[in-house]
Amino acid sequence: MPLVSIIVPAYRAEECIGYCLRSLECQVFNCIEIIVVNDASPDNTISVINEQMKLDKRIKIINLLFNCGTLGARKAGVLASTGDYVLLVDQDDELDHEAIRKLVEYATSHPADIYHFSARVLATGDAAARAREGMEGFLTPSARRIEGPDILRIQLLESGGFDWHVHHKMFDGDFARRCYSLASDERLVLSDDIYMSFILCSQAQSYEVVPNAPWYIYHLGRGETYGKVLNLEAYGRLAAADGKALLLARGYVESPASPARNDWGDRLDDLRDRLVFHAMNEWMDSLPDDLKDGGCDIALGHLPADAVCGELYRFVRDKAYALLQQRDRLSEEAKVLERETLHLLELARRAEAAPGFDESNGRYREMKDIACCHLRDCGLVVEEPADSVPTGLIHRLVRMIREAMGR
Questions:
Q1: What confidence tens digit (pLDDT) does each residue in 143-181 have?
Q2: Does residue 333 share a domain with residue 246?
Q3: Are 270 and 178 contained in the same domain?
Q4: SS (H, E, C) 70-107
Q5: How confident is the model at residue 245, as a pLDDT?
Q6: Cβ(147)–Cβ(246) under 8 Å?
Q7: Which domain holds residue 315?
Q8: Who is most buried in 66, 142, 233, 402, counting CB within 10 A?
C-alpha cells in the first residue's frame, strides 16, 4: 500500500504533463502512487501519460468520459486514492525531488489534517516575471499551527490569512477523501481551489505550516494566459466561475454535512469578499478600458451587486487618493486621473441601483466611506455620507470584537 497518493488532473496537457510526472517519479521517497486523471483531453495528453506509465508502474490513470473540470477531476482522483496522505499537483507544476520524504518526516512528528508548505515560483514571460516575487510571497505561509473553527476564519482574513490553493498542501488521506466526497459534482474551473479550500478548512481540526519548505515548484505563466488582456467572453467565464463558487459554498453551508458553527454568515461574507476582490481586480487589470463598462455589467450579472460596488469604491478610493497627490491639478496626468475617478464613481452608483443591492454589506460601506472622504478632499462633487460616524468603521469594529470573542 502506498503511503502517499499524488493526484494530477490533466486537460490539454500534452506539452507539460511529462515534466510534471518525471518530477514525481524522481522522488527519493518511493512509497507513493501517482494518480493522473485525464479529464477527457482532446489532444495527445493520454499518449504522454501512457508512455510514462510504461516507465513507472506507480502511475495509474483515470480516464473521464466527459470533461468534468478541475474540481471533478481532482475529486475523482482523491476518491480513488489509498494513501495515508494525499497531495494535489497541477499538470504544469513539479515537486522538488525530496519533497515527499521531507513532508512525511515532518508529518510523523506533527499530526494534522492539513500540512501547508511553500512554493518556489518560476516565471515564464515578462508579466509573470514581474509578478513572481509577489506570488512567491503569497504562496509562502506564516509558520504556525491553527486548530478548530479558527482555521477557516483565519484562512479567509484579508490580512494575515493564508492562500486557498489546494496544491502545495498535503492532507491526511482519510480527511481528504471525506472532504472531497462532500464536494459538488457540478463542473467548476478557475474558482474550484477556493471553493474546495472552504470545505477543507471548515472540516479540519488541525492545520500545520511546514517551515522553510519551498518544495512545490510553481510555473507561473506556463500553460496559461497569465498577464494577457482579456476579452468580454473570457472575463465572463471568470466572473461566472467566481459566482458559481460562492453559490456552491452556500449550498455546502446549508447541507447537513457542514459542521455546526455560529459564524457561517460572516465566513460566507468573507468568501464573497475574496471572490469579488479577485474578479474585480481582473476587471481592472486585464480588461481594456473600452470594455470596462461591459465587463462591469457582466460582473453584476454573476456576483452580488453590493460586493461589486464595494470594489468599485475601492478603485475610486485609490484613484482619488492618487489625484490628491498631484501637485498640479491642471496637468494632463491629473486630468486623466480625474476622468478615471469620475467614471469609476459613475459605475459604482450604477451598481448601487442594481436589484437586490444590500446596503448592509460591511466592506461596501467601508470602501464607500473612505472613497467619499477622498472625493471631498479632491473637491469632486459627491453626496455626504448619511452617517455621522463612518459605517465602514463600525462594521470593522463589530467584526473585530466578534473575532476576539471567538464568535
A1: 999 999 999 999 999 999 999 999 999 999 999 999 999
A2: yes
A3: no
A4: HHHHHHHHHHHCCCCEEEECCCCCEECCCHHHHHHHHH
A5: 98
A6: no
A7: 232-404
A8: 402
pLDDT at 59: 98
Is the same domain home to 213 and 323?
no
**Residue ranges in the chain whose pLDDT is less than 50:** 225, 382, 388-389, 391-392, 394-395, 398, 407
Asked whether residue 310 falls in the same domain as residue 361, the answer is yes
| Cell numbers at 220, concatenated | 507561473
Query: Three-state SS for 59?
Result: strand
Grid coordinates 436589484 are at which residue? 355
Q: Residue 58: which H helix or E strand, with range?
A: none
Helix then strand then coil, % of the chain, to nearest 5: 55, 15, 35
- In terms of domains, do 259 and 146 share one? no
Rounded to an integer, what distance in angstroms lies between the CA atom of residue 48 and that of residue 53? Answer: 9
265: left (phi over 0), alpha (psi -120 to 50) or beta: alpha
pLDDT of residue 400: 55
User: Rounded to an integer, what distance in angstroms lies between the CA atom of residue 224 and that of residue 76?
Assistant: 23
